[in-house]
């Protein structure tokens, strides 16, 4: 029987790989820019925020530091321990609530609705991504915004083609041996958009994350030309066809009033 992925046993490595690298810095900058736009759309007021599968709380802590009340849940006890340590160190204990549970069990721990719901880099680790995503929609308040970041199957396919990994493509993007930090279930964008629409939400923005970085011919330029690269990423990330080629896609969707 398949199970959703937890990062217990590899939390430190995961945190370093995601945020202490050129690709992580691009992801942080691009997604945070989107989140700032969401906050502006919600009126620059104290918000109630849910970070579903939020790991060690990188964005949750940033949002709490702005004065918002944040509830963060995660399946990994190690990730939550890292989050708790950072929350205490940053003096955010009165603004961040940590819950150790799978997203599917949130209804047992949380009451009420939220102005902003984050679900970042979670769907691609789930056995049943559609059902889990649909289960989050009732937590959105009327007018609330969903911030959904997912690993893009089209981006994975294109990068595999560019580097000539044709056997991997022929195998349906399935590896014989799964690496610890490679998502197990990359998502088709058109399918995710359909789920969001069928859930009654209106998509208000789409952003490609790493629309250039992973395709660069000279990998040393990813760090050696980082400032120029980030500027180009930010310039093209909300334009097609680049959105659809992002290694991740960030979808923002709003619930009707």
UniProtKB/TrEMBL annotation:
One of its GO terms (molecular function) is S-adenosylmethionine-dependent methyltransferase activity. The keyword Cytoplasm does not apply. It catalyses: 5-carboxymethoxyuridine(34) in tRNA + S-adenosyl-L-methionine = 5-methoxycarbonylmethoxyuridine(34) in tRNA + S-adenosyl-L-homocysteine. It comes from the Bacteria. Residues 50-147 form the Methyltransferase type domain. Keywords: Methyltransferase, S-adenosyl-L-methionine, Transferase, tRNA processing. GO terms for biological process: methylation; tRNA modification. S-adenosyl-L-methionine binds at residues 27, 53-54, 74, 120. Its EC number is 2.1.1.-. InterPro entries: Cmo5U_methylTrfase (IPR033664), Methyltransf_11 (IPR013216), SAM-dependent_MTases_sf (IPR029063). Catalyzes the methylation of 5-carboxymethoxyuridine (cmo5U) to form 5-methoxycarbonylmethoxyuridine (mcmo5U) at position 34 in tRNAs. PANTHER family: METHYLTRANSFERASE, UBIQUINONE BIOSYNTHESIS O-METHYLTRANSFERASE, MITOCHONDRIAL. Belongs to the class I-like SAM-binding methyltransferase superfamily. CmoM family. This is tRNA 5-carboxymethoxyuridine methyltransferase. The gene is cmoM.
């Amino acid at each position: 029987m398949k199970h959703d992925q937890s990062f217990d046993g590899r939390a430190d490595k995961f945190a370093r790989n995601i945020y202490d690298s050129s690709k992580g810095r691009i992801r942080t900058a691009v997604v945070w820019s989107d989140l700032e736009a969401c906050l502006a759309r919600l009126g620059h007021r104290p918000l109630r925020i849910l970070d579903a599968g939020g790991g060690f709380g990188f964005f949750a802590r940033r949002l709490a530091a702005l004065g918002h009340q944040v509830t963060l849940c995660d399946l990994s006890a190690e990730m939550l321990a890292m989050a708790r340590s950072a929350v205490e160190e940053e003096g955010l204990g009165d603004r961040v609530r940590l819950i150790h549970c799978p997203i599917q069990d949130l209804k047992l721990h949380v009451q009420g609705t939220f102005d902003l719901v984050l679900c970042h880099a979670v769907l691609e680790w789930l056995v049943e991504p559609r059902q889990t995503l649909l289960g989050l929609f009732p937590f959105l308040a009327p007018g609330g915004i969903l911030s959904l970041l997912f690993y893009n199957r089209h981006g994975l396919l294109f990068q595999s083609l560019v580097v000539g990994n044709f056997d991997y493509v022929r195998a349906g993007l399935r590896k014989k041996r799964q690496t610890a930090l490679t998502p197990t279930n990359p998502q088709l964008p058109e399918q995710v958009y359909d789920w969001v629409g069928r859930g009654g939400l209106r998509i208000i923005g789409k952003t490609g994350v790493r629309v250039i970085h992973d395709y660069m011919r000279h990998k040393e330029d990813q760090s050696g030309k980082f400032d120029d690269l980030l500027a180009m990423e930010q310039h093209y990330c909300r334009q097609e066809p680049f959105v659809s080629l992002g290694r991740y896609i960030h979808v923002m969707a709003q619930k009707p009033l």
